[in-house]
Amino acid sequence: MDGEKELLLEIGTEEIPARFIPGALEALKTLAGQRLDQARLDHRGIRTWGTPRRLTLSVDNVSAFQKEQEEKIIGPPRSAAFDAQGNPTSVAVGFARAKGVRVEDLVSMETPKGVYMGVIRKTQGLPALEVLSGLLPQLIHDLHFPKFMRWGTSAFRFVRPIHWILALLGDQVVPFTLEGIPSGRVTYGHRFMSPDPIVIQNPGEYAARLKEAQVLVDPEERRKVLLDGVEEEARRLGGKILPDERLFEEVTFLVEYPVPMGGHFSEEFLALPPEVLVTSMKGHQRYFPLEDEEGRLMPHFIAVNNTRVKDPSLVIKGHEKVLRARLSDARFFFQEDLKRPLIERVEHLKAVVFHSRLGTSYEKVERIVSLAECLSRKLVPEKTEIVKRCALLCKADLTSLMVGEFPDLQGVMGREYARRSGEAEEVAEGIFEHYLPLSSGGGLPRTDAGAIVGLADRLDSLVGFFGVDLIPTGSADPYALRRQAQGVILVIWDKGYPLSVREVLGRALSGYSGNLKKDDATVIQELLDFFALRLQYLLEGEGMQRETVEAVLAAPWDDFHEVRLRCLALGAFQDHPDFASLVAGCKRALNILKGISLAELPPLDPSRFQEEAERELWKKVEETAGKLAAHFQEKRYGEYLSLLASLRPYIDTFFDRVLVMAPEAALRHNRLALLARLTALFNRYAQLTKFSV
After folding, report:
1. Architecture of 564-690 per CATH?
2. pLDDT at 693 (0 to 100)
3. CA separation for the pair 278, 229 (Å, rounded)
4. Domain 354-543 belongs to what architecture?
5. What is the pLDDT of residues 272-295, one digit of tens each?
């Protein structure tokens, strides 16, 4: 359209925490699109950019004016507004006068109540510049962050104090004032390398002018410069970086112009466990560790500066000094921790609170040991002693100096200290693995000890938090219960453990000896519903259709592994030529049974059948019922569904030739009982009514 212009908004701030910026940019993009639509301003592409000192919005092709607004005002019925000859009545004249129009301007409008007369009033749109003057400050007000700051005497809050606002529509400033800060066309370059003000004449020159001022405002460009620079430094040092997308994203938003530089630390620190070195470098300093071609850590790292300096060696020495202090502390913690065997630390868990309403970590370990022993005797009885020992030691490293300093190393240090205390290798590995998976798509336990102790740990937490009514609500999940529930499902799928969910939850609840707020039955049902949502999320994530998953979960289930196998088989069965007919027949039967109290129906009596079609259906149902039960018991789900499909012609013939709702009550009840018997075979596997075929 004529007059379209680019909109540019930059909010200049003090340094924003790196972890807040990606979410803020996404929110800014979403909110801007919504507000422009609500303001009836046409636009096209929306982009957001950001650095620690600025959040930027760019919108292409913003229209010069709002779209014209059309308002329909409904008046009297046409029958009341005009007489039989089509002449306006006093009702029409009065309505037109009240709305400031002529009677001739009234138009007919179709409504659910009939034809009415009304007025169409069109309102010319305001200039975009005028609309944006009110829209942009409100947009800034409405941005949400995990944490806010106030400054000065105002009640206004933002993630960090705002220092300047650039707002342009084409070459014009969008005029407004936010908390005493006027909008304008001035931005600022890099705080240290190019701090002078920069006047932006139009949005098209914005990114290039900032680049000249040592600011790469586009995160994608900044990330590429960072990656290229880090890889170049790694090659210079003869190594390669450890892949870590989270670290790359964080560092991208820590700097405005990344300047990687390599450093060195003493080889004596390589005697520490590799995870300690990596965590010291990444977690505290945001350094990139290096490894050689064999995957061994090298005594080198890459730091990323936000400035170019005349003498990089001085800066590198500073980084090396800081890291040396960190690693010296870590070595001290490690050596002190090794002065006592891991088993001695278990007693100290009595002083560590797991949760104020669920006891100490020592009490939690006691519950984990009991539940893990129960699971092991059922699943891998020959490993029960290994599993119990792993469960006893699984939280012992929480009292170590190393984990106190580096919480991310829980489990890692437990494994290391267990090995050095002479524990069996599966015990040591299980201590680490019981935390797996650490994230979506993360690795799973290889050992049975790790898998079973991890299940016991998560199940104990789930029943405990649900039992005291600390349940996730909306997006809030402070105890990561969704992730823990997914971990339970994924471990069971991976190991193929045959477990009754109800039985295991009941056993986990027994560890609390009835000391929870809710009764066991309530907790179990709430957790079954909770697990069903996690199952649906995971199965749909594997590419299964929603209808398939919902159909299986709507039927009785008590085994995570079984649910997945049933979904896989049902998904494949949808290509069967009889699938649509079976679904239709099942729906028809269930519709007939709707509202019928099946418990009050008399027992099925084959002697009451009058039609050949109902006799044949009954014979086929009885003939297949036993085979179906065997297939289900042995998890031969494909064969179960194929056998169900063999019923299709009998079902079709039954509905074609038999009047189910016969006038005679005894005959009607008998036929309803037959349908109940038939649908039970389907409903045991899945609720086929979930399908829309």
Report:
1. Orthogonal Bundle (1.10)
2. 67
3. 20
4. Orthogonal Bundle (1.10)
5. 999 999 999 998 899 999 999 999
